[in-house]
Amino acid sequence: MNSPRERLSAALADRYRLERELGAERFIVEIKTTAALQHPHILPLFDSSTPDGFLFYVTPYIEGETIRDKLNRET
Question: What is the pTM assigned to this prediction?
């Protein structure tokens, strides 16, 4: 049997490429919060769904450093 990650990748293959998994109890709240925000410095929510029983959401990929790296550098 395929792993959950493989099943999700297959379910999204026609639209997205799965880069990595994130896990949190607050995931649904995060989706709702992100969808409600509109600001030039906040990534927009492009899509969310539950294919094959997996909850996911999509935001644009922004090339550059992580927030942690920026905070470490600039405090």
Answer: 0.56
The DSSP bridge pattern shows strands 56-58 and 47-49 to be antiparallel
| Residues 20-39: b if buried by 16+ CB within 10 A, e if exposed | eeeeeeeeeeeeeeeeeeee
Instruction: Please spell the DSSP secondary structure of 39-52, one letter per residue.
Output: -TTSPPP-EEE-GG
* CA angle in degrees (0–180, nearest 5) for 3-57-47: 125
DSSP-assigned beta bridge partners for residue 48: 57
- CA 66/CA 53 separation, integer angstroms: 30
Per-residue pLDDT of the chain (75 residues), as tens digits, is 688 888 888 988 998 888 877 767 678 888 888 889 999 988 899 998 888 777 888 888 888 988 889 889 987
Say if CB 61 and CB 44 are below 8 A apart.
no
